[in-house]
Amino acid sequence: MSEYIVEMKNITKRFPGIVANNNVTLQIKKGEIYAILGENGAGKSTLMSMLFGMYEPDEGEIFIRGKKEVIASPKYATELNIGMVHQHFKLVENYTVTENIIMGIEPIKKVAGIFPKVDLKTANQKVLELSKKHELEVEPTKKIESLNVSIQQRVEILKMLYREAEILIFDEPTAVLTPQEIVFFLRIIQGLREEGKTIILITHKLEEIKQVADRCAVLRQGELMAVVETAKTSTQMMSKLMVGREVSLTMEKSTANFRKIILDVANITVKNEVGFPVVDDVSFSIRGGEIFAIAGVSGNGQVEIGDAITGLAEISTGSITLAGVELSKKSIRERILAGISYIPEDRHEVGLVLDFSLENNLLLKNYYQEPYCQHGLLKPFEFKQTSERYIKKYDIRSGQGVKTITRSMSGGNQQKAIIAREIQQDSSLVIFVQPTRGLDVGAIENIHKQIIAERDKGKAILLISLELEEVMNLADTIGVICSGKLQKIEAAAKLSKSEVGEYMMGVKSH
């Protein structure tokens, strides 16, 4: 019997214009938490997609429990007791929790001894028991569309456990979670390991790897750089292996040179679909040359503030003024032309048209203007030339250059494309919402530098982030939000991390 539950030997996988994995060998022991670390686009997800049967390797072999296997489909991977939670969940929104979990293996009972019917009552009970056993409490009859992302993730985990998976693959599992949810998630996977499960964790979050992983394989541009024991390897060494250079996440920035007020938000209220105020009488202003960060626990109205300024959400009271121009009644395009750039929280739903090419996404806000359009005709050469410049400047990695379909790119490179497009608008106000979510340390460092560079050009920067470290690192001024109200606005230098945390939780007020 092999010492390893999973062996991937000399795996190579090519796509048009790119070698995603080049002669990679991994050996994973039963019952360990094995991390796969790498930059965005390093080939991590591709490698694990082959283990789960979504792709087949062009070269190399896969062994499960010592036996060579050709894993031609996710169905066969499931038969081998392999499960995978993808970065973007594979759930049917208008189905219930239980309906998603049992899909494809529905328990059947006979009505009147003849007619087959899905036994939902029994399935609901089984899902409830399974969720309690693994501390993954869910309501089996709730529809997916009504659940937040952390509960949806629990459903994906339960889907694997319901199918009795022993090898559990998690692709960027904490990218969409709040700091509090991340702590809970890491506890869950440690519990699963104690039950004898083998956990494979695709990530680029070094601190999480240090907390839970036994060993870590580091990929760079599709090649295996090293396999290290996490307890004996510093995060600095892992980040250097990952990006090929020293990385600093503590930003050096010059003293802010504040200019006149660019954005003035006065007493705005935003109500949700049932009329409840999710942003409640909020006022603040941002000067040119200032990074104003809003810190808060997820779901406290901070995203709606960004949406209200850009026109994606309607305000019921108050005013929003940009460089002296009242925006409240203006369209989204009018606000863009007035000088607003917006990096949204949800890059798929709001930031990109996924089935457009990369060049079309990069020029989504300018395609109708000269030099890209003349006399109603688009100018392909101008599209290509400008897009290639952005790709080079912002290190956007794509298999087929400007013609790459955006959906096929890694999440991190999709994010780089949005940031390139928005910064290149040269707007007086740039709104960054969760700008580094799902990015590796090298990309985070670059984006932090870009945010500071925009501030130093005299732009007003609104940063909305759940990452308290990011807020403390970048902000000149911090506004802390709780239950839709700004609890405190203060110069960043006058607030400690613990004070910000107390305001965020509502345990401290003015």
Automatic annotation (TrEMBL):
Recorded topology in the membrane: Peripheral membrane protein
Domain ABC transporter: 6-246, 263-508
A single GO cellular-component term on record: plasma membrane
Location(s) in or outside the cell: Cell membrane
Keywords recorded for this protein, A-Z: ATP-binding, Cell membrane, Membrane, Nucleotide-binding, Repeat, Translocase, Transport
GO MF annotations, alphabetized: ATP binding; ATP hydrolysis activity
Coiled coil: none
Chief location of this protein within or outside the cell: membrane
SMART domains named among the record's database cross-references: AAA
Pfam families listed in its UniProt record: ABC_tran
Protein name: Heme ABC transporter ATP-binding protein
Biological source species: Enterococcus rivorum
